[in-house]
Design the sequence.
């Protein structure tokens, strides 16, 4: 079964045909060839597939394709076009938040969703925001540091 | 996900119409954070008509009424957590919803979905039980109000048919000076499936006696329940250590009484009593 859906993705408008019951992550990766979004567990525990829908972080492995209809979506591919996103990406690289890199897109999206609504989060609030993202390499310290640096840089600019 | 047909109605009316007209099993899809996981395990939905009710405008919103709060079935855990109405008049539900899954799941998953999935470990259920929650169901064109206890009959089973559509959850509106507590015991801080939760609401009159009290535990009993016989122990009295320990012991004793003696009882019963005693004393003893 195919259904036409319309949505905004990374600041561009899309109208495509999808299997409405497919998983959003499969639509992104296989249909739109946006492979930055990673699949880890597939059951919403690891956060690797996190995308931002209408300003909120969501695990795209648990979203049905029909639920993308009419929404405003941001994935890691669109991040460099945004001010918060590009600062986050730069800080992740500069302060060693990336080791194997598999969790990185999800981490960036959770951090981006946090800074969208709260431009001056505490370390505790940052911890809460990425509590749904697993990283087995870094031990999280470098990731928390990088998001703090990005926050400071974003605040200084604003 | 394999399914027979997939519909995304634009209004509650359209959804109602579909429920009436379709033949064969129907699965209503809200956030889908449980269904999308089940669909990976097997093809249990392959003969089902999927009706995606996520985002239906009639199912949104949290309304404050004179003596209750009406929470639309499409309201997510995050919206409840952040709602000023819930924070003020049903704090314990905001606290329960805050510990569900991860932020990403809370942003997408609905409270009504948590009820319909009926996991005994669902963190919203114990707070809903102490708030005397009722479930508003659209059944054969009529709105029916059912106590939560009658909706969830046992783990992962509800009394709802596949043609019933939950439209709202209605909870008590508590006074602003109500004392409430939600405690979760899990294996780690975030993303943990509860081993046990303990929840209570209590209110003290001007003379220090308790004039409202309701306590229960989550992830322990097969369905969300409260215990008038336990509440009686504290109602009308000034809380002291002996009474609170008696209440806590009585809550622990419900475990073998209701679920029978299992291997885990040796752990759960004392842990439940001790935790309950601790959190009751923390907030109810005069300092």
Sequence:
């Amino acid at each position: 079964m195919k259904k036409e859906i319309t949505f905004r993705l990374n600041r561009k408008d899309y109208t495509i045909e999808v299997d409405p019951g497919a998983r959003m992550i499969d639509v992104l990766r296989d249909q739109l060839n946006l492979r930055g979004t990673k699949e880890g567990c597939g059951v919403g525990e690891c956060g690797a597939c996190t995308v931002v829908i209408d300003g909120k972080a969501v695990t795209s492995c648990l979203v049905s394709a029909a639920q993308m209809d009419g929404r405003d979506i941001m994935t890691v591919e669109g991040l460099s076009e945004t001010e918060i996103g590009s600062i986050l990406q730069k800080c992740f690289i500069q302060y060693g938040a990336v080791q194997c890199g598999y969790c990185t897109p999800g981490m960036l999206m959770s951090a981006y969703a946090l800074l969208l609504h709260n431009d001056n989060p505490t370390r505790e609030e940052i911890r809460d925001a990425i509590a749904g993202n697993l990283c087995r390499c870094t031990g999280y310290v470098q990731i928390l540091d990088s998001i703090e640096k990005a926050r400071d840089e974003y605040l200084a600019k604003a | 996900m394999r399914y027979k047909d997939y519909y995304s109605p634009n209004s509650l009316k359209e959804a109602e119409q579909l429920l009436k007209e379709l033949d064969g099993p129907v699965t209503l899809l809200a956030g889908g954070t449980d269904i999308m996981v089940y669909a990976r395990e097997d093809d249990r939905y392959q003969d089902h008509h999927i009706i995606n009710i996520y985002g239906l405008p009639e199912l949104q919103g949290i309304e404050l009424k004179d003596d209750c709060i009406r929470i639309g079935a499409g309201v997510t855990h995050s919206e409840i957590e952040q709602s000023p109405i819930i924070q003020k008049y049903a704090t314990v539900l905001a606290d329960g919803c805050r510990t569900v899954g991860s932020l990403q799941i809370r942003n997408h998953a609905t409270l009504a979905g948590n009820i319909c999935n009926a996991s005994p470990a669902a963190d919203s259920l114990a707070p809903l039980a102490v708030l005397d929650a009722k479930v508003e169901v659209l059944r054969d064109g009529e709105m029916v109000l059912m106590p939560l206890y009658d909706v969830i009959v046992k783990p992962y089973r509800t009394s709802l048919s596949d043609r019933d559509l939950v439209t709202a959850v209605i909870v008590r509106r508590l006074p602003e000076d109500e004392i409430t507590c939600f405690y979760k015991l899990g294996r780690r801080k975030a993303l943990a499936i509860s081993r046990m939760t303990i929840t209570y609401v209590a209110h003290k009159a001007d003379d220090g006696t308790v004039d409202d009290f309701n306590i229960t535990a989550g992830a322990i009993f097969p369905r969300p329940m409260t215990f008038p016989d336990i509440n009686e122990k504290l109602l009308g009295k000034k809380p002291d250590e002996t009474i609170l320990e008696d209440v806590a012991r009585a809550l622990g004793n419900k475990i073998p009484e209701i679920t029978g003696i299992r291997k885990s009882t040796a752990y759960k019963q004392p842990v439940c009593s001790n935790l309950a005693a601790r959190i009751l004393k923390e907030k109810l003893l005069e300092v």
User: Anything to note?
Assistant: The mean pLDDT of chain A is 97.
